Amino acid sequence: MNNRHIYFLAAVLTVLALSMFAYKAKMLGFPVMPQQQTQIWTIEAAVSFTPGPAAVKATLRIPSLTPGYSLMDENFISRGFGVTTRPAAAGREAQWAVREASGPQTVYYRAVVYRDPTRQAEDTTPAFPEAPKLDEASRIAMEGLIADVRRQSADVASFTTELLRHIGQGQNDPYIRLFLDRTATPSDRAHLATIFLAGAQIPARIAHGVNLRDRAGAVQPEVLLEVHDGVEWLYFNPQTLQQGLPPDFLIWWRGDESIASVEGGSGLDVTVAVQQSLLDSMLVAERRAERSGSHSAEFSLFSLPIATQAVYTVLLMIPIGALVIMFLRNFIGLKTFGTFMPVLVALAFRETRLVWGIVLFAIIVSLGLLIRFYLEKLRLLLVPRLTCVLTVVVLLMAGISVLSHRLGLQPGLSIALFPMVIISMTIERMSIVWEERGAYEAIQEGTGSLIVAAVAYLVMGIAWLEHLIFVFPELLLLVLAAALLVGRYTGYRLLELRRFKALQEDGARAET
């Protein structure tokens, strides 16, 4: 198989891994950093009223289209009321109904929202508004104001800003004097602006919302003017004339209606409160995936039982350890006993810690090697000899654990976590190398195994990397792609440069 096929396969795996990672991180909000938390706000609306003698219905406008924010959860709290939700011109409505009630009543709506940059306003272009119905004097004043504002503006945004400036002048503006009763509050100014904008054939609407504060407490709904410029919705503060959607502003409902209404009752009062808190980003990502219809969270490792998750937290790091070994062997040139023995020893180091792990490993291998040399004199067959070595290793581990316990050395008890079969095979392999190629070669490979295991332990112990691989296991495809590319490498290893240095010097002398 040629290199082109390998390069193509590695490129496909890389693109696939990065695409899945980007989708889960950017679109679904899967946390890239460990212990990452997402800022959320709990918004509560308490609707209080006094019911009449007959059936009563209480209606509350609730959030639907909220640019910059997404709804994570919502609850409707009441006693004895039936609750229904339905779409409405203002967005959505929740209606509490009861056939008979006595005494003051309070129903609650509670929503949990979080920042979502992907959440944008609807992209459908609204129809041109109908011309407002005004008396002759008001119509003439409106037309004069529109003509004056058009001369002083260049586009929809500047037109709206200039219009709001005229409305804010009140008595000082000759065109606004007829409408002074409609400029008392920011809501009145926004409503008057929609009338003038309708006369100019510009779609506009009123948006009501709340500022999401850092401190808990009651908030008052505020008003924004939304104007469509033919491409997108623009936001304006009718009081300050500031353009743009404030960063902490949550749009609650739209239209001229109030936030709530009641039929069959009186004394309506609505209190809105906001509380900020932090929540694990993974929980937010799971809820976001659920609401968007994505099954990524359902098929993630977080859907497994907790005990199984703990197992895969370790298992998923084994390819990372193998990647470290691959680079140290193929590019550096370190020699080890076996390919995956250092990875398993590195896993044991996670419990024993590095220094104690190296000490315990050296003791077990040294003692086991002495026993192996003695067994060689007995000329046993391979399988019985390995059985003897394995038994001796287990006895040595048990003895070290008991001795450590008596001496109060707690790390010595974790020696039982060493892979005893792998250590037995390491002892067997080291003794063979000792006999065939000498003590220097055996010690060199044993030392190389410990160095590689130590480096693998340090890399596999990076908390951020462990979190990243567990949340985005598709990143292991990058390890696979790297292994494919390294598998075609036939160049020098770093430690081989010293071996071939003499040949380079001879070649240089021959050329001269």
UniProtKB/TrEMBL annotation:
7 transmembrane helices usually fused to an inactive transglutaminase domain residues are 258-503
Magnesium as UniProt keyword? no
Span-the-membrane segments of this chain are: 6-23, 310-334, 354-375, 382-403, 409-427, 448-465, 471-491
**Lineage of source species:** Bacteria, Pseudomonadati, Pseudomonadota, Gammaproteobacteria, Steroidobacterales
The scientific name of the source species is: Povalibacter uvarum
InterPro entries membership:
7TM_transglut, Transglut_i_TM
This protein is called: Inactive transglutaminase fused to 7 transmembrane helices
Query: Please, which domain of life does this record's source organism belong to?
Result: Bacteria
The segment(s) forming the Inactive transglutaminase fused to 7 transmembrane helices domain are 23-181
Q: Which UniProt keywords apply?
A: Membrane, Transmembrane, Transmembrane helix
Q: What Pfam families does the record tag this protein with? A: 7TM_transglut (PF14402), Transglut_i_TM (PF14400)
